[in-house]
Structure formats: structure tokens, C-alpha cells
Amino acid sequence: MPSIDLNCDLGEGAGHDAELMPLITSANIACGGHAGDAATMRATVALAQKHGVVVGAHPGFPDRANFGRVELAVTPDEVHELVLDQIRRLQALAPLRHVKPHGALYNMAAREPALARALVDAVYEADPRLILFGLAGSHVIAAGEACGLPVASEVFADRTYQADGSLTPRTQSDALITDAAVAMAQVRRMVREGKVRATDGTDVLIRADTVCVHGDGANPVEFARRLRHELSAAGIAIKAFGT
């Protein structure tokens, strides 16, 4: 039976954590960069443990004014330092299973090999057993595999894809999928067939180990609930990656 992990970025102040947690299998917890502090980390970890959800670090650029979504001119050394620091903050509170970078850091590392390697080296230094979540087919996945880290290829239900397998930039009008039925069909196909239809109409091969459920999107709880239901109805098991 095919399976998929449902991951969600939490501890960011969106207000839906308590409702989303029972619907997911992996929680990416903001750890003091783009969002989060010791109190929110403790509360989110406790909520995850209550519902049997695995805990991961969600490091991002320390740019709270822009929620870590604006690309910054950073060096590989700076990326290594900020990622390692944020992982260790959460490690001090709970055992971790994975790491998923946030926002602009996620996108920059996906396309820039030097930043991908800096990110991977930081994760490896924190704990070489940590699973690195990264954009399917990206430099992050390649760098993680080359370093010997376990990796999970991430896909998105509510984002469109380009012919090279990258996400359509949010600056473009067709970046988001607003029809829930279309989003559900996209996930089912990625999991079952390993393919996604790009905006130019071509089919792109893609590996789907974990799917992102946006905690700050429109109606995130309803979306997550429907996604779980439709995946289960399609015979796809929902479980944390690697379990």
C-alpha cells in the first residue's frame, strides 16, 4: 500500500495548532528564527506528544518582520550558523526526528548548491540521524543524500509546478491552487503515479514522501481533514515518514 506523511509548520502563531495537530503526522516547529520562542516551542512540542505526532525543527531566516519569506543576502557560513543554532534550541526541549527549512531559506537552498550544502552540514552536525525534508528533486535532497543524511522529498498540494520540477513562484498569478478538488487530485497522482502536471501541460516525474499542509492557509483545518479523508479513501496510508 502506498503511504504519505502529512507535515505542517506549527508554532508560528497562526492560531490553528490545536485543531491541526490531530490531523497530521509530522510537526515542523518554528524555533526562534522567523517565529517562535521557548514558550511556544514547549507548548507545540507538548501538543505534538499528546497526539503522537513526530517533532521536527523548522529553522528560518531571523527576519520576523517578513516572516522569513524574503530572500536575504546570506553566505553559506551564515546559513550553517543560523540553522544549527535553531535546531539546537529545539533539541534542548525535545528529541527531534526531522528538520524542514522555512520560507525563503527553503527556496534558496533548493536552488543554490552552496546553501544546500551549508544547510545539510548544519543538520548533520546537530544529529546525523535527523531526516531532512526538502523540495522534491532539489539541491537540498541531492546534498542530503551525498552527505549520508536520510531525506524526505516534499511535495505540495496547493502549489503549481514548473516543467523543471520547481514550484511556480508566488509572484505569479497561477502559483496557488485554490480549488480543493484539484489539489486533492494532484496529491493522489503524485503519491500513486510519481507524476505532477506542470503549468505548461507536461507531466513531471516527482517523488512524494511527505506533503505539506499549510497551517496559515485559507481554511487549513478543513483542508487537512479533507486531504486525510481523500487519501485514505484512495487506499493511501497516512503515517510519519520512515515509520
Plain-language structure description:
This protein has 243 residues and is an alpha/beta fold. Helix content is 38%, strand content 18%. It has a single domain (3-238), classed as Alpha-Beta Barrel (TIM Barrel). The chain is built from 8 helices and 10 strands. The strands form 2 sheets. The chain has a 7-stranded parallel beta barrel with strand order 1-2-3-4-5-6-9, surrounded by 6 helices. A two-stranded antiparallel ribbon has the order 7-8. Strand 1, helix 1 and strand 2 (26-30) form a beta-alpha-beta unit. Helix 7 (180-193) crosses helix 8. The model has no long low-confidence stretch (mean pLDDT 96).
Alpha-beta content class: alpha/beta
If classified by CATH, what would the architecture be? Alpha-Beta Barrel
Low-confidence blocks of residues: none
Please, what is the CATH homologous superfamily?
Glycoside hydrolase/deacetylase
Strand order of the largest sheet: 1-2-3-4-5-6-9
How many domain modules?
A: 1
CATH class: Alpha Beta
**What is the end-to-end distance?**
14 Å
Count of alpha/pi helices: 8
Query: How large is the radius of gyration?
Result: 16 Å
Query: In sequence order, what are the helices and strands, one letter per element?
Result: EHEHEHEHHEHEHEEEHE
CATH topology: TIM Barrel
The beta-strand count equals 10
What is the strand content? 15-25%
